[in-house]
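Quick one: structure tokens for this chain, please?
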Amino acid sequence: MFRLNSVPLPTLSQRSAMAAIHSIAAQSFLSLPNPKPRKRIAAHPKPILTSKLPKNPTFPRNKQKGRRVLNSAVKREECDVIPVQSSDSTDQQEGVVASRVESEAGDQGELVSQVGGFGASEGRLSFEGAGGFGSTGVGSERESEEFERPVEKLLTNIPSRYSSASLNRSSASLNRSSFPSGFVFGSASASYQYEGAWNEGGKGPSIWDNFTHQYPEKISDGSNGDVANDQYHRYKEDVKIMKDMGLDAYRFSISWSRLLPNGKLSGGVSKEGVQYYNNLINELQNKGIAPYVTIFHWDLPQALEEEYGGFLNRQIVNHFRDYAELCFKLFGDRVKHWITLNEPYNFINFGYASGQLAPGRCSAWQNLNCTGGDSATEPYIVAHHFLLAHAHAVEVYKTKYQASQEGVIGITLAANWFVPISNETRHQNAANRSLDFMFGWFMEPLTSGQYPHSMQVLVKERLPKFTEEESKLIKGSFDFVGMNYYTTHYSSDQPDNNSANPSFLTDACVFESTELNGVPIGPPAASSWLVIYPKGIREILLYAKHKYNNPVIYITENGMDEFDDPKLSLPQSLNDTHRIDYHYHHLDYLRKAIDDGVNVKGYFAWSLTDNFEWAAGYTLRFGFVYIDYNDGLKRHPKLSASWFKYFLG
């Protein structure tokens, strides 16, 4: 049985203390045990696999492993021969997954050796009786002790193989100074997941308020974001945590219906909503933390959904433009980094194809208990309107505000990496189609003005077309691209199926899975879709560099989760060495991508604190900071928060 035998460490300077903490990240990918299997949760909005339908579409919840093909709207040869289309033909094959299959398969021995090791109490370092984190939350008399207590005490129970003597030199060198001057480190959040105060200060309801209230059975624990982390009332406390951690920036989103209760300027602007965001932005600036603001992170005003169907209707483009311009007017004197939309792929996939997330729409034939919809057409309509809304908002910013406010504007996209199951051409093409249908769906129009070639061939007339004027407006409508990378999946060609009904879920003719022949591509986190594959962040960045003309990039989300386990004591819950592993290794590969010439300017971890994780509710925890939902939402920094503080130095 695996045991953590502690040995006393000598008094350490901050430099050697940082090295000792780094050693956890450098070594423990090989050290964690295989605990008893636990049920893994699939209900989460990042690139989740529960939306991929089984061959017999009865869809047992939380059981899905990958994307199955239900629609034979295209012939096998149509799937097989789709080439990789690039906005720069000379780079057409660069960064493509196929050439890396053999080497990546060889890399899996180390990672798979600890499958099931994350989230287990047996695999956590114990700090009980060793000066561990206090049980009081930030804001108490001991708020500074969470970060300032002697590092020697924090490290007392680190096993001997993690001591500085066993530390690899290259691992010890990874810190803020490993990245270019001016590189930004921050954390990310979203209004519905953090703010709470769902009906305070004149706020109107959002589609997420409606979804969680009307369909609580669609949330794993039946919960909602009515209170969430209560950042609406506790923003000063959270900003202090950011300051104590040494963060440069905070990425948060504005709630559309908190500013515009009915979604439109004609319905009036909430003074209380404006005051809240002014207070938050000013508090961040007073603490030397730059605000990076997302204008839309999934919480559409319910009034617009009810009036005309939200993003299904072209009217949304003008209303989003008006809302975005209001944000520029109100906050642009202090906000210098704007993100129009967050992860349109996930909002659309799970909101309009599988119906797992708000507004919960999909085709009735899929038997997914949706509120209505058409999975064959609605995802493409919504994506079309997303791109037009984005482009019009960017045009307003660039023509009316950018010169005087001296800011930049971009968009954040979901960005999995995909590995073909073999070097067969059809599986290589399948991996490229996976990239097209997730990342390229939006990135290709933003760089070329047109949808990916593979989507045009496979989706045919169901894929909307841009007018010449729209294409010109969308092409180049960004100063930077935000990329949210969490995981990597296998892709295989699978064009054959037994259904005549088309669906976005099957149009790519691809089966996507976290495992091959029963072996996961990497160690699992708590969410079934999230397997840990740090190398993938470098691969997707290189792919974006070569295929899309080396854009300016920010990693706007990157993180992993563990289960909320009520059986663990508070000190055990704070010992998240697995999170240190995750961020350390991803940052290491990110550094390598920068060395390879990728133009990455910043890294935002998901997330500052545990929070409402969409369809998973509060059953999963992604934060550097533990939220005690049973004790007044007290904040307790985890071990990873201390590690990140010393990493940033």
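The radius of gyration is 23 Å.
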